[in-house]
Design a protein that fits this description.
- The structure is a single chain.
- By secondary structure, this protein is mainly alpha-helical.
- It has one domain: Four Helix Bundle (Hemerythrin (Met), subunit A) (Up-down Bundle).
- The protein is built from 4 helices and no strands.
């Protein structure tokens, strides 16, 4: 893998995904909520910049194209797991989380099929 700035940002986002859940191991609520939110927002910002910089600097790579959607899905899945886990398995949160996860998997499968 070529370590370009966009690939480094994507790798950092991959590492930040489990960090959202880890915040709840080391901090009590509400601090864990805030730290996880800051980490999630930081990862979302890097998601924008890794694609923007890769296109701007013409550093698009196959590994980056593969890792970017994986990092996105990891962030979404882990955030949903933490939210549903701490909600006491509230059915009003489980249903939307299930729909979101279904959409993530469906879109991934559709992209793979069409690719």
């Amino acid at each position: 893998m070529i370590w370009t700035v966009p690939n480094i940002l994507t790798t950092l986002r991959l590492l930040a995904a489990p960090g959202v859940a880890v915040m709840f191991l080391y901090f009590n609520r509400p601090w864990a909520d805030w730290f996880a939110l800051v980490l999630f927002i930081g990862a979302a910002i890097t998601d924008y910049f890794d694609g923007y910089l890769a296109r701007l600097w013409k550093q698009e790579s196959k590994i980056g194209a593969m890792l970017d959607p994986i990092a996105d899905k990891a962030m979404v899945v882990i955030a949903l797991l933490v939210i549903t886990g701490y909600s006491g398995m509230n059915p009003w949160l489980i249903l939307p989380a299930t729909v979101i996860l279904f959409r993530e998997i469906f879109v991934s499968g559709l992209r793979e099929y069409l690719g």
